[in-house]
From TrEMBL:
Its main location: membrane. InterPro entries: AA/rel_permease1 (IPR002293), AminoAcid_Transporter (IPR050598). It comes from Hymenobacter gelipurpurascens. The chain crosses the membrane at residues 12-39, 45-68, 89-113, 125-145, 152-175, 195-220, 232-253, 282-306, 327-348, 354-375, 387-405, 417-436. GO terms for molecular function: L-amino acid transmembrane transporter activity. This is Amino acid/polyamine/organocation transporter, APC superfamily. Pfam families: AA_permease_2 (PF13520). It is found in: Membrane.
Amino acid sequence: MTEAKSETTYKISVLTGIAIVVANMVGTGVFTSLGFQVLGIQSGFALLMLWVVGGVIALCGALSYGELAAAMPRSGGEYHYLSQIYHPALGFLSGWVSATVGFAAPTALAAMALGKYAQSVWPSIPPTALSVSVVVALTAVHALSRQAGSRLQVVITSVKVLVLVAFISAGWAAATPQPLAFLPHTSSDWKQLLSPAFAVSLVYVSYAYSGWNAAVYLTGEVREPQRNLPRILLIGTAIVLGLYVGLNFIFLYSTPISKLAGQVEVGFVAATELFGIGLGRLMGGIIAVLLVSTVSSMVFAGPRIVQVMGEDLPALRWLGHTSKNAIPVRAIIFQAALTLLFIVSATFEAVLLYAGFVLSLFTFLTVLGLFVLRWRQPDLPRPYRAWGYPITPLLFLGLNGWTLWFIAQDKPTETRYGLLTLTIGLLVYFVGQVLMQRVAVARKP
């Protein structure tokens, strides 16, 4: 069998799909966001509950997406679902957000975090140059071979999970317990769960969990998608929920809050507190290497949205082109260019909040679409139905909507930038529609 044919017929397995989901989720957020959360929340119970609530939101979302993916098995994720459920304009907007923010910004954040961790271990390394180099190298790998990219993803994600489990176990054995209560002792512990600080911190946590829907962007490349996609989403999300709660417990259990406050590289800070400066530096270096998995998974999944948009919209047709190995090389390069722009032009926290708001908005609309689709097309074949419907999707909508409301109230600048991005996308859509109509008129005899 020739290489070209092998690449074309190759399908992503359940294991690779789970690896993509886990790698998309476990990365920037869990290694960087706790330092921002402790600035507004001092209760150990509330801080740990952030990650439990975030995991529940992600699981409810995965259950809902599993039904949509099985009922509408095509690559493209929210772009495909929202176009079919609501209107092509809304689908375009979600694709626009995914192309410009949804993957490019998180890829940039993962690469920037990688550079920060590497610099904490090797101070002579310029973090921006390293971030750029990693993005360029992984873009080249995924643009050349789908099989090579899949194998790389499984290997580095497996190593990541094993290292994190080892870190949690070693941290539990070596930690000097901090005077922080992880069970509620007073009414104020419960009240913090309803505070604006908790809601805004859920932005960071939701961002950390945001890769739970990664596999739906690759639906057309997954083996038996109607059967395997729900399994991929649920297993991947459940694994990450366990890892996140365990990691943040160790960070808080072992390290004074004052040392974590405002720090990006919280994993390095906690490792130094646990094992001393030497082993702390080693752990910081390991985390930097593990973040390669996160960058790789986003470089792999994100361009598939741009590709599907290019297939559907004549104005973006050049982005839908694939190589002889059925790889969307142009879309991969396009996303890489946007990623590099974020790396060299924006600060870490600003990019994180901006991306978190816009992404949460479209996952909200997608899960809401589950109700709309059941109402409009009750007879549509559904090989998988969301477990716990309608409670699980309603729980997702309630928690996600609550977070969005508080972001808009507490972070108006990032909210405005998010809405500006949507406005620009809407203008691009309508200009493209006008151009298409003019071309159609000109071609008429």
